[in-house]
């Protein structure tokens, strides 16, 4: 698979830096905002960059085999919450009452939810929500492949198609969101596999499991890594062995945004893991991504470091859904406004 990914405009980045140095402020006084303003100029190829009016969050919802209750316990062995929450939350996103719905409204961003792999048939939701469904749930990665052959490619293609739909609809900025009980275990496995890290280092508490729960997650990730073996070296084989349809769809979404030259704000642990896999598929795509926020999950920190990304915000969020990235939108808009609206030192009376 090859992708025609545009290069950000380095001439515009240089012109932006020059213009920033000439604004009514001490040199460099706007810190990170200056870097973000120049990044946006390079993305848009203009100084100042265009406004970020149309921001869109796509929540990829799906279940993960690792969250299934065991014969001896009704609760998930790897999450503080039961897997039924995933399907229930799809309805909450549609009602507009989820965390990301509320936070997105604060910044005028839209939220779209897609059932990519919820373990159930959501017959009571609008048909467009299930239009890109790949399968119901996924294999439990410690004992079986997550996906059947060809499903990783289908999920990836679905994510690309969704990015195209949003960009054709006018999106200036895309945010990948995620909803899936158990998905922090899958994200940890992907990050460990991509970066060659031990499970013990990457696994966190997710929705809030205790030390015993975390130990179970570590064991699942270790078993998944052992099962995947050398397949971890090829991204689609990796997604098939220990990823999920949502991870594949999110990776496709990230790559297609880059193909179309549309900036992305990564969110938390799941989009960080998907971004690592997406970079293996299309290395140049990473130039179109920024990290919206720092999650509390260790695997996200490893992923962002490997991607060379410094999160814009650090609010201690661990909700997922795209919620943290949404909070960074006003920062990006502020960075743009400085270039568009501040006066120049040269004009001082
Ligand atoms: O992105 C994060 O920082 C994050 C950290 C912990 C949990 N989550 C969300 O919680 C769910 C996964 O948590 P868990 O414990 O079920 O693996 C999933 O729906 C994620 O969106 C998200
Ligand atoms: C209620 C709930 C909402 C979520 N949103 C993202 N992950 C979630 C996990 C739970 C449990």
Could you provide a short overview of the structure?
The chain has 349 residues and is mainly α. The chain has helices spanning 10-21, 31-44, 84-95, 99-107, 127-130, 151-168, 183-195, 199-202, 211-228, 235-242, 245-259, 269-281, 298-307, 323-327, 329-341, and strands at residues 55-62, 110-117, 173-179, 264-266, 289-291.
Strand order of the largest sheet: 2-1-3
Briefly note the structural class of the backbone: mainly alpha
Number of domains: 2
Q: How confident overall, as mean pLDDT? A: 97
Amount of helix: 40-55%
Bound molecules: nicotinate mononucleotide, 5,6-dimethylbenzimidazole
**Which ranges are low-confidence, i.e. pLDDT below 50, for 5 or more consecutive residues?**
none
Count the E strands: 5
Backbone CA Rg: 20 Å
Distance between the termini: 58 Å
Just name the CATH architecture of the largest domain.
Answer: 3-Layer(aba) Sandwich
Helix-strand sequence: HHEHHEHHEHHHHHEHEHHH
Q: Remind me, CATH topology of the largest domain?
A: Rossmann fold
Shape: globular
CATH superfamily of the largest domain: Nicotinate-nucleotide-dimethylbenzimidazole phosphoribosyltransferase (CobT), large domain
């Amino acid at each position: 698979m090859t992708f025609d990914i545009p290069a950000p405009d380095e001439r515009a980045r240089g012109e932006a830096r020059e213009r920033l140095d000439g604004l009514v402020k001490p040199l460099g006084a706007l810190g990170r905002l200056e870097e973000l303003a120049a990044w946006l100029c390079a993305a848009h190829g203009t100084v100042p960059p265009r406004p970020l009016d149309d921001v869109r969050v796509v929540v990829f919802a799906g279940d993960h085999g690792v969250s299934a209750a065991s014969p001896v316990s009704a609760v998930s062995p790897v999450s503080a919450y039961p897997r039924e929450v995933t399907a229930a939350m799809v309805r909450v996103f549609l009602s507009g009452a989820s965390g990301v719905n509320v936070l997105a409204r604060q910044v005028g961003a839209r939220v779209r939810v897609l059932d990519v792999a919820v373990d159930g048939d959501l017959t009571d939701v609008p048909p467009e929500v299930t239009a890109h469904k790949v399968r119901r749930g996924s294999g439990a990665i410690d004992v079986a492949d997550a996906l059947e052959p060809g499903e990783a490619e289908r999920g990836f293609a679905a994510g690309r198609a969704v990015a195209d739909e949003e960009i054709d609809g006018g999106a200036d900025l895309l945010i990948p969101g995620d909803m899936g009980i158990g998905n922090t275990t899958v994200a940890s496995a992907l990050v460990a596999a991509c970066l060659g890290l031990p499970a013990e280092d990457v696994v966190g508490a997710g929705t809030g499991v205790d030390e015993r729960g975390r130990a179970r997650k570590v064991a699942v990730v270790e078993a998944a890594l052992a099962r995947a073996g050398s397949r971890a070296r090829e991204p689609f084989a990796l997604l098939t062995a220990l990823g999920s349809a949502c991870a594949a769809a999110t990776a496709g979404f990230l790559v297609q945004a880059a193909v179309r030259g549309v900036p992305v704000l990564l969110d938390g642990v799941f989009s960080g893991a998907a971004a690592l896999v997406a970079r293996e598929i299309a290395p140049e795509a990473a130039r179109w991504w920024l990290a919206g926020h720092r999650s509390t999950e260790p695997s996200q920190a490893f992923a962002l470091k490997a991607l060379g990304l410094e999160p814009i915000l650090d609010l201690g969020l661990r909700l997922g859904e795209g919620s943290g990235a949404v909070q960074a939108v006003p920062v990006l808009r502020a960075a743009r406004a400085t270039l568009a609206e501040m006066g120049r030192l040269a004009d001082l009376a």
